[in-house]
């Protein structure tokens, strides 16, 4: 019952603040230039992560392995939850997210997304979508805006591995832009298409830049995939209740309590 009530409290603040933030984004769109606009709009993203901690006791641990602060970059991240879209949009900002155009039609939330100059694609025409993604991504990078790619194309069920598309590596190779890989275990606490949010620590690992000069997109995609999946397997349990992650259940790992770095 307590878990339900805490999640209900979070959702009330999440959707209520989203309506306010979406409306505000429409107002400031013609007034503020993009650099100032993304700072204002992503205040909502920061609020959501903070409110998640207050309402549901879901904390965030960041392991940043970057040796240099490269910018702009092509960010290639695991897509499990809604959490990473919130977190990465402000933590690695300014960034344009590659997403399906249907999301921009959602009242309030879609308005906020649209104001952040995303790269919206039409999935009904895959060939044209690929061309649009590359053209628009190159334009964003030339403007000094990083590009966020979810190479598996959609949210992937916790503990599973999707097929990594080569579009992100293709964009990086075409522009000589470094790739930043990102791994996390957000879906353990914020599962996709589940109402309940589970207390715990979401760990996000931001990898060092992968250089793309003289590389080909196939080997780059494979390198990113291997890094992300290996990092995810090594992450500690996220949930405070010590419930197994799917890959730990499958491997029958005898873990009965969450293990945190340094413990």
Polypeptide structure, described:
This protein has 263 residues and is of the alpha/beta class. It has a single domain, classed as Glycerol-3-phosphate (1)-acyltransferase. Helix content is 44%, strand content 14%. It is built from eight helices and seven strands; from the N terminus they run ααββαβαβαβαββαα. It has a seven-stranded mixed beta sheet with strand order 1-7-6-2-5-3-4, sandwiched between helices. Strand 3 (95-100), helix 4 and strand 4 form a beta-alpha-beta unit. Helix 1 (2-28) runs antiparallel to helix 2, helix 2 crosses helix 3 (83-91) and helix 6 crosses helix 7 (217-234). The longest helix has 27 residues, at 2-28. The radius of gyration is 18 Å and the shape is globular. The model is unreliable at 247-263 (pLDDT under 50).
Q: How would you describe this structure in keywords?
A:
263 residues, alpha/beta, Glycerol-3-phosphate (1)-acyltransferase, 7-stranded mixed β-sheet, 7 strands, 44% helix, disordered C terminus
CATH class: Alpha Beta
User: What is the mean predicted local confidence, pLDDT?
Assistant: 88
**Parts with pLDDT < 50 across at least 5 consecutive residues:** 247-263
Domain count: the total is: 1
Main β-sheet: number of strands, strand sense, barrel status? 7 strands, mixed
> What oligomeric state best describes the polypeptide chains here?
single chain
With helices defined by DSSP (H or I, 4 residues minimum), what is the helix count? 8
Topology, number of strands: 7
- The assigned structural class equals alpha/beta
SS strand fraction: 5-15%
Shape: globular
Task: Please state the second-level CATH architecture.
Answer: 3-Layer(aba) Sandwich
Widest sheet, order of strands: 1-7-6-2-5-3-4
Q: Nearest-angstrom radius of gyration?
A: 18 Å
Q: Which sequence of SSEs, written as H and E, runs from N to C?
A: HHEEHEHEHEHEEHH
**Helical content class:** 40-55%
Between the first and last Cα atoms, what is the distance in angstroms? 31 Å
Instruction: State the CATH topology.
Output: Glycerol-3-phosphate (1)-acyltransferase
């Amino acid at each position: 019952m307590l878990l339900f009530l805490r999640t209900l409290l979070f959702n009330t603040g999440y959707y209520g603040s989203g309506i306010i933030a979406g409306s505000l984004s429409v107002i400031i769109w013609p007034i503020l230039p993009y650099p100032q606009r993304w700072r204002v709009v992503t205040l909502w993203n920061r609020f959501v992560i903070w409110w998640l901690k207050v309402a549901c006791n879901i904390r965030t641990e960041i392991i940043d392995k970057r040796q240099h602060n490269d910018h702009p970059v092509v960010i290639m991240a695991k897509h499990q939850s809604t959490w990473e879209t919130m977190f990465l949009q402000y933590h690695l900002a300014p960034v344009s997210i590659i997403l399906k155009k249907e999301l921009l039609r959602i009242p309030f939330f879609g308005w906020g997304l649209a104001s952040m100059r995303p790269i919206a694609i039409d999935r009904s025409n895959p060939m044209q979508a690929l061309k649009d993604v590359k053209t628009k991504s190159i334009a964003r990078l030339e403007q000094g805006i990083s590009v966020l790619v979810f190479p598996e194309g959609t949210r992937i069920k916790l503990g599973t591995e999707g097929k990594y598309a080569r579009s992100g590596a293709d964009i990086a190779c075409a522009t000589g832009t470094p790739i930043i890989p990102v791994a996390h275990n957000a879906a353990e606490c914020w599962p996709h298409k589940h109402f309940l949010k589970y207390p715990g620590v979401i760990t996000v690992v931001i990898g060092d830049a992968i250089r793309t000069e003289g590389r080909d997109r196939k080997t780059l995609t494979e390198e990113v995939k291997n890094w992300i999946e290996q990092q995810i397997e090594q992450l500690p349990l996220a949930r405070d209740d010590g419930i197994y992650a799917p890959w730990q259940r499958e491997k029958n790992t005898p873990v009965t309590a969450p293990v945190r770095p340094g413990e």
